[in-house]
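--- STAGE predict ---
source: upstream dedup step, 1 unique chain passed
mode: sequence only
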Amino acid sequence: MISVQSMPGIAERLEGVRLAQRAWAAEAIRVRVSVIRRLRRRMASGARELAETIPTEFPGALARAVADSLVSEVLPLLEACRFLEREAEATLRTRLVGSAGRPLWLGKVEAEVERTPWGVVLVLAPANYPLLLAGVQTLQALVAGNAVLWKPAPGTAAPAFALRRLLIEAGLPAELLTVLEADVASATEAIEAGVDHVVLTGSAETGRVVSRQLAETLTPATMELSGCDAVFVLPGADLEHAVRALVFGQRFNGSATCMAPRRVFLVGLAEARAAEFEERLKAALMELDPVLLPAGGETLLRELIADAREQGAEVELDGLADGEDDWAACSATLILRATPALKAMQTDIFAPVLSVMRVTDAEEALAAHAACPYGLTASVFGPEGAARVLARRMLVGNVLINDVIVPTADPRIPFGGRGASGYGVTRGAEGLLAMTTPRTIQVQRGWPRRAYEATGEGHAELFAGVVQMLHGRGLRARMAGLKRMLGAARRLRP
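--- STAGE serialize ---
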């Protein structure tokens, strides 16, 4: 393995990377996809070894077993490979624009729309899913014809290097994937060196910092950012199922998941049902094993708990009651009688924190939900019909009905947020297309002789007739426009 420290600077490497990228982009899509097919076979053969490259504990991220890494990162990445094998060629194929709907005055112009790669894509990877999230983004970028610079989060370079090695064994030219040092300076240097597109998965604050850097060069980006995601429990919901799902969302990946539920809205539940739900939830959360918080996480969580008490909410479970500073053991925190103004209802945090708010109806629920700046995912528990009605009114990227988190791993589905949760999408056909930019080619086959002539007053009447003929209201108006156009055309003849 080549150490990143022994390599020359990013700017010096970019020339060779761009040469390799242009050659790669010239390859047929099926050739690029064949690399992914061979990669999938190699990943499947060494799945456990690949999973073992993912750290099981480090600040701000994971506390998981190898089995968890297999099911939450390796398996979904394999499915993402299979998706590209099946769909990439059709998704990226040049689209021929037919004659239907072509403007009248372009009667002999033929057009096609190509999907062209950006060039060099910088992937800024997260700590919480260091293989899956950056891996999918990298594979989609490569299949689209780009070269990739992968900047891992601190402590997570091993899975990046492991996937790179497997890709090279599968036939990827080595220059097309560069693993950078896992520090902020590397990201800054890459941006300054002149990458063509950036994909960031991280916090909203990191997104703001990177966006300011990109503004200097107007470099486009996809931002997959934080969440403070909501769960809506409707009348008729299976309360036991909803509680199990919420507790799973707190436990999964040590609660270090951007779309883990943090806010719960009990929508129109009768007093007895709401109280039953809260008791069930409290009992289930008390069974959760503690998770580790990084330096700073303990301080933030204490602020959220103190703020809840100051604003009159009920802190039913205080996850830090027995904690210590820095790397504190954090149990589940449950806040009842929450309001939209609570910091816990507006803050992204990787800790098992749930705030529960009772609301009278969907209107109050949606207003309370909109008070939070984040819009990544949301879940609705209840009868499917009512859940769909509510889902269609939410300003979020993904809505899950009667489930949390897991369905978003479907590689066919685009994933992205709104508001402080970012913009653009990764994954699915839409995410693959986002790794490209459209280029149109139009061919004029008619050579209209008078199209380039200077216009005069007579042309104004001609064009007014054309407009009326094409867009007038009713047949009579359009026929009058045709007459007007023909009359003006006769007068313009030499």
